[in-house]
Design a protein that fits this description.
By secondary structure, the chain is mainly alpha-helical. It has a single domain, classed as Methane Monooxygenase Hydroxylase, Chain G, domain 1. Helix content is 85%, strand content 0%. The chain is built from three helices and no strands. Helix 1 packs antiparallel against helix 2. The model has no long low-confidence stretch (mean pLDDT 87). One of its GO terms (biological process) is negative regulation of DNA-templated transcription. It is found in: Cytoplasm. GO terms for molecular function: DNA binding; metal ion binding. This is Copper-sensing transcriptional repressor CsoR.
C-alpha cells in the first residue's frame, strides 16, 4: 500500500471511529433518533471515503501493472467481486 493511501485511509478511519463512538454514546443516552441517524450517516460516509481511497490506490498500484501482464483477468474479477459485495 502506498504511504499516501495508508495515511489518508487511516485519517478517515480515525474520523469514522470518532463518529461511531459518538453514535454509541448518543444511543446509550437515548438522544433524539434523527440526530443518531445523522451521525450514523456520517460514519457510513467516512467509511465510503476510505473505500474510495483504498480502491483508487489499488487500481494505481496493482491493477495498472496487472493489465500489462498475465494477471489481467484475475485483477478484473477482484474488482468486480468487490463491487458485487458493496451492492448487497
Amino acid at each position: 500500500m502506498q504511504r499516501s493511501v495508508k495515511s489518508d485511509a487511516l485519517k478517515r478511519l480515525r474520523t469514522a471511529r470518532g463518529h461511531l463512538e459518538h453514535v454509541i454514546k448518543m444511543v446509550e443516552s437515548e438522544k433524539y433518533c434523527i440526530e443518531i441517524l445523522q451521525q450514523s450517516l456520517a460514519v457510513q460516509s467516512a467509511l465510503r471515503a476510505v473505500d474510495n481511497i483504498i480502491l483508487k490506490g489499488h487500481l494505481e498500484e496493482h491493477v495498472t501493472h496487472a493489465m500489462h501482464g498475465k494477471d489481467q483477468g484475475k485483477s478484473i474479477q477482484e474488482i468486480v467481486d468487490v463491487f458485487e459485495k458493496a451492492r448487497r
